[in-house]
Amino acid sequence: MGSQVNYAGPRGISPLMWAAKRGHIQMAQYLLENGAELLQKSQDKNQFTALEMAIVNGQYEMCLFLLNQDESQLEKLKKWEVYLDAAQGKYLSYVNYEQFIVYLKQKVPFENCPNFYKRPDPPKLHDPVIDPRETWTEFFARNIDFKEPPMVERNELGENLQPQNRFLARLRHYFNGYDPYPKKIEDVILKDNENYLKLDQKQQ
């Protein structure tokens, strides 16, 4: 293969980096056997090695394979936030990089690892309203796919964006089965207060 084995193409990555990104272990092994440089860095702002390329793309088993070639790579890994930042804006599956790195450093077999690719459940909203900042493009795309409207906490919105203050927003909430008005005190609390007052009056 000659010098071509480490040639960084127009995108600044070598064949080994390309294989690492896609999780092709057999191809990576073949390249290494034919002179591929394990610690070569990409020719872009990130300057990632093949191992780091595999991390960004969530290729855990590929990472283990590359680490077995040279465990000293662990000492040169960056903080997990760096890999998260590198993944932003790319069409990549979700990866819990913090957890991923912890298990990788311990070289835990993939079958014994938790699911790095499961998104955490969104926090439960206390007083949810439909997000009025959704663009028309997002609105039409969502409705074509029959998806639910985006929800946010009411207190995240300014007074001018509160749904109870806007006619179309009220209609939109009713149409989707949501109450546009702020939550009121629960009836059970009112009843408790009434009972307390009655009891207090009897004792006087």
UniProtKB/TrEMBL annotation:
- Which InterPro entries has this protein been placed in? Ankyrin_rpt, Ankyrin_rpt-contain_sf
Q: Which SMART domains match?
A: ANK (SM00248)
Where does the record place its ANK repeats? Answer: 11-43
Domain of life the protein comes from? Eukaryota
Question: Which keywords accompany this UniProt record?
Answer: ANK repeat, Repeat
Question: Is Ion transport one of the keywords?
Answer: no
- Pfam families named in the record: Ank_2 (PF12796)
This protein's name: Ankyrin repeat protein
Q: Which organism is it from?
A: Ichthyophthirius multifiliis
